Amino acid sequence: MNNKPLVYLLFIILVLGGGLLIGANNVPGGWYQSLAKPSFNPPNWVFAPVWSLLYVIIGVVGARTWLSPLRRSIAMRLWFAQLVFNFAWSPAFFGLQDPLSAMIIILGLLVSVAGFIIVSWRQDRTAALLFLPYLAWVLFATALNAAIIALN
C-alpha cells in the first residue's frame, strides 16, 4: 500500500489546521487596530487567504521532505524550525501584544525558511522553489513588523 497521499494529507492538516487554530485564538483586536501602520500594510482580509495558501504549500513541502531521503537531514530540521517560528509569531504579536518579541521570532522564521531553500536546492529543487513565495511573504511580513515597531 502506498501511504504517500496519507502523509501529504497529514502534513497539510497539521500545518493548515495548526495555523487556523492559532489564528482563531490570536485575532487582531482593538489593540492592533489602534496601531499606526505603514502605507504598504494590506487590508486585513488579505492575510487569511494568503496564509491559508502558504500553509498548504508548507504542508506539501514538509511531506515531500519527510518522504525523501532528506527526512533525517538539516532540511527537515529547518522545516520543523520554520513551523515553530511561524506558529509562535501570532501569539507573540497579537496575543502578548509584543511586536518586538514578534520581530525576533519572525527573524528566526526568515532564517529558517531561507536556510531550508538553500540546503534543499540541490536535493529537491521543487521543494526549494515552492518555498520561494513563502520567503517573499515572510520578507514582506518582516518589513511590516519592523514598520509597526518604528511607527509605534
UniProtKB/TrEMBL annotation:
The keyword Amino-acid biosynthesis does not apply. It is found in: Membrane. It is a multi-pass membrane protein. The chain crosses the membrane at residues 7-25, 45-67, 74-94, 100-121, 128-151. Coiled coil: none annotated. Keywords: Membrane, Transmembrane, Transmembrane helix. One of its GO terms (biological process) is tetrapyrrole metabolic process. GO terms for cellular component: membrane. The keyword Transmembrane helix applies. InterPro entries: TspO/MBR-related_sf, TspO_MBR. Belongs to the TspO/BZRP family. This is Tryptophan-rich sensory protein. It comes from Shinella kummerowiae.
